[in-house]
Amino acid sequence: MAKLSLLAAVIISSMHTGYRRAGIAFDKGENTVEVDEIQLAKIEQDHNLLVQSTESIEPGADSSSQGNVDADSVDKSITGPSVDDVTLDLSHAPKELHAIIAAVHAKQCQEPLTRKPNCDEFGGLKVSGADRDAAWAWYQDNVINHVPD
C-alpha cells in the first residue's frame, strides 16, 4: 500500500474545543495539524471547519507541530473557497470574531446569503447577537462590499 504524504494544515473550527473530525480533536478557532490527503478531504467536507492553508511536509521533517499555534504566527489569508473570487483575509478582523466570520464565509460559499444569519444557524457554535452583528458587519464591509485597491 502506498504511503500517503503528510500536509501541515491550518484549520479554523467554529465548533467547541474537542470537536473531532478525521481522527483529530480541534480547539475552537485556529489549529495547526498534520494530515494526510484522506483526512484533509474529510475535513474539507465539514462545514464547521475551514481549511485556511496547507503545506507539504518534507520527509524526515520534525513532526512535533501538531496542535494549536499562536494566532499571530499564522498566515490569515484563507485559501479555501472564495466568494466571487474574493479571498477571505482575517488579518484585520478582531480575533474573537474569526470563528464566526469563517462560519459566515462558509455559509456564503454554500449559498449566497440574503440576510444576516440567526444566532442559532452557526452549527452548534454559541454566538451572541452582538458578536453575530459585529461579524456580519465586518464580513459585509470587508468581503461582500469590499472594493479592491
Automatic annotation (TrEMBL):
Domain Mu-like prophage FluMu N-terminal span(s) in chain numbering: 10-55
Extent of Polar residues compositional bias: 53-68
Residue numbers spanned by region Disordered: 53-80
Transmembrane domains' residue ranges: none
Superkingdom to which the source organism belongs: Bacteria
Protein name according to UniProt: Mu-like prophage FluMu N-terminal domain-containing protein
Organism of provenance: Colwellia psychrerythraea (Vibrio psychroerythus)
